[in-house]
């Protein structure tokens, strides 16, 4: 799945398949300006920053079990969001520091380090990497991902795929080759 935020005419948190199909709103109320998103892949939770409502919130992948992690003026100065173990990590543009927020007790906030200039944060650690299984976009014997001549996108499951073409090409009637 692909998760993303939008705060155009109607602010929301959405998800869809990797090929863009099955687009679903998972949060569309009491949300104004979601600017950062982080996923807990193990427990299947979506965290986001709303800088207008000055809150960090969480829901499960279906948009249920919504909770506020923390609220306050300091939120409007945050950018980027990552989750690892019991903590959320973000960057304060106010004092250029990395902040660690306990995701179960939003009042436990610690500044960890100062940075020159950062707008995003990611945690790279072996435990954050999902196990890779055989999937529909694996390279075939001819070197084509999922049998697609240009682009292979996973669809509704790891066993299904959709072929797409680069700009200037159209998908052939076989659903795999680009002309």
From TrEMBL:
GO cellular component: plasma membrane
GO biological process assignments: canonical Wnt signaling pathway
Pfam families found in the cross-reference section: FXa_inhibition, Ldl_recept_b
Residue stretches of each LDL-receptor class B repeat: 1-43
GO terms assigned for molecular function: Wnt receptor activity; Wnt-protein binding
Name of this chain's protein: LRP1B protein
Species assigned in the record: Daphoenositta chrysoptera (varied sittella)
Lineage: Eukaryota, Metazoa, Chordata, Craniata, Vertebrata
